[in-house]
Each structure stands twice: as C-alpha cells, then as structure tokens.
Amino acid sequence: MPRREICVTSPEVAMHGEINIHARVAVVTKAKLDDIRIGGECLCGPAPQPKPEYDVLVLIDGSDSYNNKVSINGEIDAGDAFEATQEIIDSDLIPGLQQKLGDRATFRLLQFSGIKQLEGAYKPGSGGAAGTSGLLHYKEEVAKTSLDRATRQSYSEGLDGNGQLFLVLQDLNLEYQKTSRNQILVIVSDEEWDLKKLQTPSGRVADRDEIATETASKFATYPVIVRPNELADLDDDFIANTLASRQSNYKKVFTKSFDKQLKKAFKEIIADLE
C-alpha cells in the first residue's frame, strides 16, 4: 500500500517564563611578572630643551652731536634725540623684551659720551670716571637687573661731551667674558665718534677695529645709527662689517622719521631673540 503524508500548517507556539537569580561573584586575578625588558628601539620623544637666557645691555649716545632735533609723530623738530630715545626705550624696547623673554634675561642701560681733553689719561676699566672729580666719560643709568623688574623712574640729562664710543666698548670688553648666556648689545648713536689718544690696558694707542671686533665676539651687537642726512652714511662699511656682529644687525634711523624708524629697529631686534 503506498505511503501517504498529511501536512498540517500550524502557528508557532512559544512559551515565556522568567527566572530571577541573585548572585554575588568575586573574581580575583593573580599574575606573576617573570621578565621585563627595555629595548633600544623605544621612542619616548626628545626631552624639551630649556629656552636660552640673555643679558641685554643698551648704550645711548649722550654726546652733543647725537642730540639733534628729531621728528616725533610726523612733526619735524618735535623733540631732542637723547630724551626721545629714552622715551622709546621705555615705551617699546623694555616692554617688548619683557613680553618676549620674561625672567630669562637681565637688563642694563648705560649712557656714554666723553671728555676730549681727558681721553688720553683715562685708565681702562675705571667705570667711566675721568680722573677729575665729578666728570664721567659714561655712566650707568640702569644697573644690571632682572628684565621683568626693569623700570625707569626718571629720564637723565645727556653728558653732552664728545662721542667716546670705543672708550666704553673697551671697558665692556674687559668686564664681560663669553658665557653660555646670550649677551646682547644695542648701541643707539650717531656715526660721529672720537678716538685719538685712548690707551689700551697695555699702554698703546687703542685701535677701533680691534675694539669693535672683540666686542662683536662677545656680544650679538646691534648698532642703531641715527643720521640727519640720508645721502651720506659715514663709516657704513665699518658699522655693517665690524661693529655689528652680523650685517643684518645694523639698523639705520633718520631724524625726519625718528620715532617710527627707531621703534621698527627695536621691534626687529626683539624678533631676533628666541
């Protein structure tokens, strides 16, 4: 008899139930360190390098030839160069340096001039004392201090002598030695300098190239030279290649655009510092 099958379609039947189990389980894992190895190929990244530290020294020319009438805010003959220089140092140079370097730097300010008749009798390293009571070739206006505390209480009057730049530079060469700190020298002056009878420590007549070369070996030197005449740059080659520690450090300022160009020179100097 043949087999027959009957197919029946039925809906799915599902059963539902809930079983609630409350349990507390604690898992403790114990591990034993058998070996530890450090390979030379590990890359941890370079250690951060400390930021460089600076000693900033500024020289202002206090001679009579520097203190010309200069343009301020577009007004011709609006001020005297010596006082205006101090004002811009206070308004632009010191705050700019403070913002860039903070407490990583020191600051010092000297005014230089000179007494022509006493040049030959000056003993190198005498701190500017001319040998006659009360007379100075240069003077310290702001003693070396932490840059973040550098302030000016009042402006000084110019010494109003001749331009004995190399007298003060020779003294600085004796005072400063090369160190791990970056020594910055900013010279704000005209280009009328006197050097005839200045003696070296060994007693011979001083040579400006020798003095300037030694200065540039110890300092990053920035000559900021103020002139009334744009057509006659005296000692241009000497300033750029000997007095300045590199040519780009040489900054030119003219009296007819004095405040703008001096502020620009200071801004460029600050931008050079790390």
From TrEMBL:
Domain of life according to the entry: Eukaryota
Protein name: Oidioi.mRNA.OKI2018_I69.PAR.g8652.t1.cds
